[in-house]
Specification:
Blueprint: H1 7-23, H2 27-34, E1 38-43, E2 47-52, E3 55-58, E4 67-72, H3 73-80, H4 86-92, E5 96-99, H5 101-107, H6 112-125
Parallel strand pairs: 1-4
Antiparallel strand pairs: 1-2, 2-3, 4-5
Length: 129
């Protein structure tokens, strides 16, 4: 059984998590300045999530992604719990990527507050840890 009960819950949890980064007083401006548009194509539940300097978009959009990442909802969950690193996930093909992975690697240090916040988010939504 998938971690997220449905698309709506996944959008709420992961979309809200990324909005937290965009609103973070230190890392939000840094992410926005990077100008990176990331498209996440999620399976189980099927969804598309965009993270752009302008905000988070739930669902497909007429944008050009700098990086497109395809992964399952369970893989995203494991990543945010720090049970799976991005380099390992890419090597195992748990996450596939199109575009500049170097740009994504530059963003990784900015994700620290999201990794720290995710366990409490799991508790709030009744997601396993």
């Amino acid at each position: 059984m998938a971690v997220f009960k449905d698309q709506a819950q996944m959008y709420e949890v992961l979309g809200g998590l990324w909005e937290g980064l965009l609103n973070h007083e230190v890392y939000g401006p840094k992410f926005k300045d990077a100008g990176l548009k990331i498209k996440f194509v999620v399976t189980d539940p099927a969804a598309v999530l965009w993270v752009t300097p302008q905000g988070v978009i739930r669902g497909d959009a007429d944008l050009r992604a700098d990086v497109e990442m395809t992964l399952s909802g369970d893989t995203a969950h494991s990543f945010w719990l720090k049970q799976l690193s991005l380099p390992v996930a890419l090597a195992r093909r748990s996450i596939t990527s199109k575009g500049s992975i170097n740009k994504v690697m530059q963003v990784l240090p900015m994700l620290k507050p999201l990794h720290e916040a995710y366990p409490a988010i799991c508790d709030r939504y009744g997601l396993p840890r």
